[in-house]
Amino acid sequence: MMVDLDKYLDQVRNMTPVAEWSFVAPIYQSAERLARKHHLHLVRIFGDGFLLYGEGLPDRTLLLNTVQYLIELQAALQENALRFKAAVVGGTLVLSERRSATGEVETVLAGAAANVAGKAIRRAARGTLEINWPSGSTALAAETFETITAAATRQTASVSISHLTPDRDPFTLPPAVKSDTATPAEISAFSGSVKSVVFDTIKMADDKAKAIFAVAGGFLVYLFNGRVDPAEFFVFCGVGHLVRLGSWFAAMFLFLASAILSLLVLYPRTGTSHKGLLFYGSIRLWGTSVAYADRLKELSPADLAGESAVHNFDVSGVAEQKYTALRRSIWLMGLGILAALIFLGVQWLSFPTPKQ
Q: What is the CATH number of the domain that holds 47?
């Protein structure tokens, strides 16, 4: 069984290590005391949760015993205004004791059931219990991660922890409704992460465009600086001469187009379609600083978080435009390099020119 405390970081964000330990120590002590009461073993403590296991066959008795533990743990954590989610998986485990360099003895668990529990706890919504329990005909020793996950011979359920009762089979409870919508703080944090990724992506596009412009410009200068005599445009000296002039024209045109597209990548996008609160172009549409400030005062945290998400959408549009132009610029530069190689190859083969 794995237990994960909800919003643990919000509780300890501004605590020193000593203050954090003073906060969590009673929680861990309660978890360990209740584990002993219900014949469970607390083997590992994470920053925001813990891992437990029980001994014996995974039958109805062990399942109800685990449910009772969760009910009492919920009551104990309510004193600290904490909720949690949990994952319970019945199966075979291999236990081993490991002695650390400091002499401490640690119980190490191995087995598919523990791996399934780790995956289930990440999937579980707030305040819910994910259960994966074997039926009577399951060959526990032969199970793997894939067979437990497939649950062909198992019972699975996702139920609300608040609906658990000591004497009722959890599989008879109604499925948990995933109503844990993201909070404004969570939306804001996620939007900030997205914004950072999008801006990094835009910066990479700009850096690539600068390199393409430099390469294309260098080829243009090289090809234009005396590679073809103006007199050659008016004299026909055979097929080789036409190939040489044609490849030169093609290379010049392709490099010029590639350079122009790379400049389009770098060109600032300042257009906006609405009165926003983040982008300077949108802010200026409010007309006066007072109107902008008054609008901010009217908004809730959820509105501000939503505005950040809207800005992400707009910035993503800018990134899409940049990468569209960048891809075309790269293709044109590649074709330009091919045309330039043809031109240089013909020239190196010493086809006759008007000077010869």
A: 3.30.70.1230
Could you say which DSSP state residue 125 is in? P
Question: Could you give the count of Cα atoms lying within 13 Å of 18 in the half-sphere of its Cβ?
Answer: 0
| pLDDT at residue 275 is higher than 90 | no
Do 197 and 283 fall into the same domain?
Answer: yes
pLDDT band with cut points at 50, 70 and 90 for residue 138:
low
User: 227-259 as b/e, with b when 16 or more CB fall inside 10 Å?
Assistant: ebeeebeeeeeeeebeebbebbebbbebbbbbb
| Residues 162 and 213 occupy one common structural domain | no
* Contact in structure between 201 and 233 (CB atoms under 8 Å): no
d(CA 256, CA 261): 9
Domain with 317 in it: 184-348
- 256: Cα separation from own chain's centroid: 38
11, 86, 88, 100: which is closest to 47 by C-alpha? 11
39: left (phi over 0), alpha (psi -120 to 50) or beta: left
Burial class, 344, CB count within 10 angstroms (exposed 0-12 / middle 13-18 / buried 19+)? middle
Q: Does pTM top 0.70 for this prediction?
A: no
For the segment 312-335, the average pLDDT, to the nearest whole number, is 92
- Total domains in the chain come to 2
Query: What's the pLDDT score for residue 94?
Result: 83
Q: Which residues are paired to 2 by β-bridges? A: 51, 87
Same domain, 138 and 12: yes
Q: Is residue 215 very low, low, confident or very high in pLDDT (cuts 50, 70, 90)? A: very high
Whole-angstrom Cα distance, residue 260 to residue 263?
5
